[in-house]
Amino acid sequence: MSKFKYFPSFSVGGFGDVLRKNFKFNDGFPCRFYSEEFPEQYRHTDFLVSAGHFIRNNPNLYDEHGFTDKNLVMGDSGGYQIASGAIKWKPEITPQSFKWLENNSNIAMNLDIPPRLKYDGQFQSCLDISIDNFKYFADNQTGKTEFLNVIQGDDRLTYKKWYDKVKDFKFQGWAIGGASGNPFRFTSGLCALINGKEHLNDRNKTLHILGTSRIKDFFMLLQLQKSLEEVGSKMMVTTDSSSPDRAVVFGTYYSGYSMKRGTWEGINFPNEPNHPDIVDEFENLENPSFPIINEFDIELNKHIDFRSVKDRHAYSTGMRLHNFQFFKDVIAKIESLVYTHDFLLQQSISKDLYTLLHSIDELVKSDNPDKVFEKYEHLYRKMSSTSKEATVKEHTFF
Q1: pTM of this prediction?
Q2: Widest CA span of the chain, in angstroms?
Q3: Residues 6+ positions from 178 with CB-CB distance below 8 Å
Q4: pLDDT tens across 124-147, in order?
Q5: Would you tell me which CATH number, out of the four given (3.30.930.10, 3.40.50.410, 3.40.1280.10, 3.20.20.105), belongs to the domain 5-243?
Q6: Exposure winner among 24, 288, 292, 387, fewest CB in 10 A?
């Protein structure tokens, strides 16, 4: 089994609410999948919490979720919420974020300002403010939390520029932003870190890719983990996702996937506001069990079924637990394929993805990552729908 870790990002939204309230089904079965109350074979002790939603009104999310020293908690600093406009940037956010992360997480991102969304095109301004934030984090870190340096960019040039400006801060690992679902950005950011030999620096324990939910991304990250292990790197590759929770908002119950196409499949469940007639039928089914898609569903059906369809919390929590366990099962299957013989891996995925995985292996093991990047750049662009280099515009941040 590899070092790779998946951190479910469920501190906000519907799942976050029931987890904080420690919701239990009528027979007492818990929803806290990370607690010792949950069946051991399905327990998942890793979790991501987001400072961006809570730094101003909830200083003790660690306690509210019921975490213990058996949990490994990763903290997101709130940079995405700033970029999206959910939080208005102010300098006082920096110490607030730092304090919140030290109180609520074991591993955490520095407070970067992503040059995206609201700040698209404002690369230099985002970098300048991020540097100030990183300096504050570096000067004030106590060792209680392992902080990760963060790089952002749009292409090899901008990721390298960001990396060169922040590489001297002494943190305990790295995170690559803006790379989810985009092999071109992912390999651009990875190229900067491999060129800098960060993967061979024993101080660096974690390499996090922010916000991953696509099947091809998990293949890429598990290949990266495998390649790092083969060159003797001590880094643990990690990622986070809220997809199993967010899917329930649209009534989606994961039912399948395709490795070849890299797609998830789902069944749409009814809800009372939009499908009152169908909900009544569900409630009176002769066999009211949730569909058995994976092994966990056998356990789930011991504690809830469609007779609870009008109990919003129970019904949606059952769907969320199923989606999460299904998500984990698919990641485990991807891991087994990446770590198996190449002959089997090649038959399981698309030709482009297979070539992409080999290119990641070459990047990690090469003395000239830039040359490897240039060799496969056309493929990276093709798989990312990227046709030309991004231009860097300079604007005033405020």
Answers
A1: 0.94
A2: 65
A3: 114, 116, 152, 153, 154, 185, 189, 210
A4: 999 999 999 999 999 999 999 999
A5: 3.20.20.105
A6: 387
